[in-house]
Design brief:
By secondary structure, the protein is an alpha+beta fold. 25% of the residues lie in helices and 26% in strands. The strands form eight sheets. Strands 3-5-1-12-9-10-11 form a seven-stranded mixed beta sheet, with helices on both faces. The longest helix has 21 residues, at 545-565. The termini are far apart. The model has no long low-confidence stretch (mean pLDDT 96).
Length: 744
């Protein structure tokens, strides 16, 4: 291989560091108008009247749109349960109420952003407040007010896993540990808040330029809500300032298209632009699901985990979004990457009046992994067995029968990830098994004399992460490769819809194409993320883009090369890669032949310093071992590991998203704190393991989410090592740490 495995420079690097790259908020067109959205800003209410006359009379206001202007007033990635605009006169009865503070009620299009905001503030809405539910356990109880009256219950979905005989196994266990764990909501806080531009293009299509993760899904949602053929809608993704799952469910795409389309119908062909403030972004899009997990595990005295039981409850918020799929992964990962012969899991996601829970890096894995790894570390303590050694006695292999009563895809490497991480973090294999013999974090100077309030500790955790869509969701990734030239291939044009959300996907596309065709990288031209010129690639999510696009582009290149050999010029090859099928859980038992077609494996060791006087927790060292199958671009893999560790550090230690009574108390970056350079770990050691995946392109697995999963439990274990106290929820804010230490 000449290009695969090389750390070539990212194709977007120069434009981004020089400021030449245009993000959606930077794009302007002649004659554009500006839009503002009226948010509900109340958690649950029926809308009786919307009075727009004052706004419409304001000089400079071009139009005001409400629910009556939406042809098919519904959308949703998995379940069509959310109105585009809430209010009376809608094509859907359930749209006449708001269910969270970020529900959208009206649109104002004006000559300037300032006038649009003034017009928005002149709209008068008469609400009738309804009961507010913010606790998913309360929402699931019989007799609780229904947040969606067209449904019979507030439970979005209920999964069950019944594997072996848990009760009998607990009777045989020598040690049992129980815990109740809470994982928080998390704000995506991506670099660029939601922004976009909609207009009618030269072929009469409604065109939306916006940051998203799945252009064709966005096109489908827009077309459905506007009751138009998909061919009449075009979605373009310019540069995207981060996503992390936050752009998988739509926020402004449909309303932008609606405004441009309705203006066009009135004979006004003007582009419409919107830029959300950070506050609007925080209240207007979904969060990582908050989870409550009750776990009970049993083991024999020689360290064999023989039983695991869990109750898993997810706060779905006002609408379903991706709750069903996120819950599926949490259900799978709540028992960790271990072979446990007896498993009993009940998991539910419920509607509440909180901001919806949805996709976020890890997609249910971090929540499930937190409970699993906390249980494993507590078992290790109670058994007197090193936590690395205990894991290695129970890790899954190619032959393991997992909780879903089937094997994982061949190539299970969690053992190799654990051993590589442990070896780099100061563990050694001795006569009685793996033991910690060296102090991670030793590069730091010892605490000065008299600073006994500074305590250091080390924690360990491991996990695994699915690659690609799960549980029967249809997978696909189309690519087209064009070969141009006379005697030799002089130019290669690659068409692929995959979004580059900052992870470097488009650089990977070009590397893969150059390798597959056998030409230098500079001969590759990329046409990406525009539904007018590409077929459906699926979402840039689920750690799938390298895996899926690599196979799709490679397949298209093979088709094109065969035509080239037959002197069919230009040679054009199109290919749709479809991986091995996945299957949903069987109701009642949770059995499935294959919930996911591929996985990545990860282990992390963390050294922390805890200030027992202030409660601050600082990460000194993180060692992260990831099996990526094959590093297409090692530098980008290392960047993904480091970036993921930083984001997970915020999740574990700093980011305290507060909702009370359905209202958000942390709707600014001054109240919702994300890591700065002073908060990130002092050192991150990235261990890139390459055990090829049997179906991955050149053996590559997806890896963009893996480092997130084990970090929080590793940090909590390190704090326990430092202070002697287990803390079962996070973020580990100073207040929470001091309370756990009995100092508040």
């Amino acid at each position: 291989m000449s290009i695969i495995g090389k750390s070539v420079q990212r194709i977007d690097a120069y434009g981004k560091v020089t400021g030449q790259t245009l993000y959606p908020g930077d794009i302007n067109k002649p004659g554009q108008a500006y839009m503002k959205i009226l948010f509900a800003r109340r958690p649950h209410a029926a809308i009786k009247v919307i009075e727009t006359s004052k706004a419409e009379a304001l000089e400079g206001v071009i139009a005001v749109f409400t629910a009556k202007d939406v042809p098919v007033n519904e959308y949703g990635l998995n379940i069509l349960d959310q109105p585009v605009l809430c209010g009376p006169g809608s094509s859907r009865v359930y749209a006449e109420r708001v269910r969270f503070i970020g529900d959208q009620v009206a649109l104002v299009v004006a000559e300037s952003e300032k006038i649009a905001a003034q017009g928005r503030d002149l709209i008068e809405v008469e609400y009738e407040d309804l009961p507010v539910l913010t606790d998913p356990e309360e929402a699931m109880k019989a007799g609780a007010p229904l947040l969606h009256p067209d449904k019979e219950t507030n439970v979005i979905l209920h999964y069950q896993i019944r594997h072996g005989d848990v009760e009998a196994a607990f009777e045989q266990a020598d040690v049992i540990v129980e815990g109740e764990y809470r994982t928080p909501a998390q704000e995506h806080a991506y670099l660029a808040p939601e922004a976009g531009l909609a207009y009618i293009d030269e072929e009469g299509r409604i065109t939306v330029e916006v940051a998203g993760q799945w252009a064709h899904e966005e096109r489908e949602g827009i077309a459905h809500a506007l009751d138009l053929p998909e061919e009449q809608v075009r979605v373009i993704h310019p540069a995207i300032g981060g996503a992390f799952g936050g752009r998988e469910d739509m926020s402004i795409q449909i309303v932008l298209a609606l405004a441009a389309w309705r203006l066009h119908q009135r004979g006004i062909d003007r582009p419409v632009k919107i830029i959300w403030s950070r506050e609007e972004s925080i209240i207007g899009h979904h969060k990582r699901h908050a989870y409550l997990i009750r776990a009970k595990w049993g083991a024999t005295k020689d360290g064999q985990v023989i039983a695991a039981q869990a109750e898993v409850i997810a706060d779905g918020g006002a609408y379903a979004y991706t709750s069903t799929k996120v819950l599926g992964n949490a259900t799978l990962m709540v028992t960790g990457p271990y072979e446990i012969p007896n498993v009993h899991v009940d998991s539910c996601a419920a509607y509440t009046n909180n901001i919806p829970g949805g996709a976020f890096r890890g997609f249910g894995g971090p929540q499930g992994a937190f409970a699993a790894e906390m249980q494993m570390n507590k078992l290790a303590e109670k058994l007197g067995i090193d936590p690395v050694e205990l894991r290695l006695r129970n890790v899954a292999t190619d032959e393991s029968i997992m909780s879903f009563n089937a094997r994982l895809p061949q190539g299970v490497t969690i053992k190799q990830a654990i051993e590589a991480c442990a070896g780099a973090a100061g563990w050694e294999k001795v006569g009685v098994g793996w033991q910690r013999v060296d102090g991670l974090g030793a590069e730091d100077k010892p605490a000065e004399a008299g600073a006994q309030h500074l305590r250091r500790g080390v924690g360990f955790a491991a996990s695994y992460k699915n690659v690609g869509f799960s549980f029967g969701f249809p997978e696909r990734s189309w690519a087209t490769v064009e070969l141009h030239g006379e005697g030799e291939i002089e130019r290669v044009v690659v068409h692929h819809a995959g979004a580059d959300v900052g992870q470097g996907a488009h650089t990977i596309f070009k590397q893969v194409a150059a390798e597959a065709v056998g030409v230098p990288l500079e001969r590759i031209e990329l046409m990406a993320a525009d539904t007018a010129h590409t077929d459906d690639s699926g979402s840039s999510s689920a750690s799938r883009m390298t895996y899926m696009s690599g196979n799709a582009i490679r397949g298209a290149a093979e088709v094109a090369l065969k035509k080239w050999e037959n002197e069919d010029r230009p040679a054009i090859g199109t290919f749709n890669y479809q991986p091995p099928k996945t299957y949903p859980y069987t109701p009642g038992t949770g059995e499935t032949a294959n919930p996911n077609f591929a996985y990545g494996y990860v282990a992390e060791a963390v050294a922390v310093e805890v200030d027992t006087e202030t409660g601050h927790v600082h990460l000194l060292d993180v060692v992260c071992a990831d099996d990526v199958g094959k590093a297409i671009n090692p530098q980008q893999v290392e960047g993904q590991i480091e970036g993921c560790v930083v984001q997970a550090t915020g999740y574990a230690v700093l980011e305290n998203f507060v909702q009370e009574g359905g209202y958000t108390k942390t709707d600014m970056l001054s109240t919702y704190l994300i890591p700065t350079v002073l908060d990130v770990p002092d050192r991150v050691k990235s261990l890139i393991l390459e055990y090829p995946d049997q179906h991955g392109p050149w053996g590559a697995r997806g890896m963009g989410e893996m480092p997130f999963l084990p970090l929080a439990p590793a940090v909590v274990a390190a704090v326990k090592d430092a202070t002697g106290v287990w803390i079962n929820e996070f973020p580990l804010t100073p207040e929470r740490v001091l309370c756990a230490l009995g100092k508040l």
